[in-house]
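Work Package 3 (structural annotation) set out to generate three-dimensional models for the target panel prioritized at the project kickoff. During this period the team completed the workflow that converts sequence records into discrete structure tokens, so that structures can be stored uniformly alongside our sequence database. As a representative example, we reproduce one entry of 318 residues exactly as it appears in the project archive.
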Amino acid sequence: MTTRTNAIQVTGLRKTYGDDEVLAGVDLTVPTGTVYALLGPNGAGKTTTVRILSTLLPADAGEARVAGYDIRSEVARVRESIGVTGQFSAVDELLTGRENLRLMADLGHLDRPHAVGVVGQLLERFHLTEAADRRAATYSGGMKRQLDLAMTLVAGPRLIFLDEPTTGLDPRSRRELWGIVRELVADGVTVLLTTQYLEEADQLADLIGVLDRGRLVAEGTAAELKRLVPGGHIELQATDVQRLAELARTFPESTLNPAALTVSLPHDGSLTTLRKLLRGIDNDEVTGLAVHTPDLDDVFLALTAHSRTDASPGEVPA
């Protein structure tokens, strides 16, 4: 049962192609006004999930409500409530940026005065005003992606699906798009995001779901997911060799690095453990403290260790 606080509510979502079960009973909840990121290797079911929730593909089983509407019986209401930016650009390169936006306004049945205002606001918001009357074919990759997202927003949806929105963008363009997503969420828009970039999920997502072989194998905030895998540690730096030896006696489970005058201790990432550790330290023994936690790369590799992937470091295949 969906509530007003949930933009998306999914229970037991299933999809099969022949003998290939792409989604094997996915449950997920996306609170209103948040960013939910789906991560997973090739074939995990990320894009299939987006296509089903945006009514572009029927599910074989399960229930889902999007913006409060049932995706089976209230298709038109779902489509009126959402915006979708897919992996491939919807920009018509033969049209100018302004014409692309006006086309979306016409498709959304916006009256002309309102459409003119919305188009102008979006061009300004996405820093496309100066290029508005140039054909989109002359735009850079980052500009085309910004126009693509602007087109998604013409009708003013409060829930948008972004399927790998920054794939192929340079780091500057990617960060600019991140800034726009943050602005949208600050305005109350809900975002369901699939991404190849673990850093992107870490930067943007309030909640992250890890899909693998059609199942949601983990879910939580970035910090919560990082605590699921081993590798966290605290590094203490001693004032001298004598203090280093004292720290080693105090913490027999520690690993020493005499050259750097440091000891490393396993850490589960909890504040309680850190406080307990600090109580056991003599301030005169330590000149520095650093807390190291696993990153999302570690989480992804641990949770999907059996999946074959050709992704480069820091990326997850689409």
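Confidence is low (pLDDT under 50) at residues 308-318.
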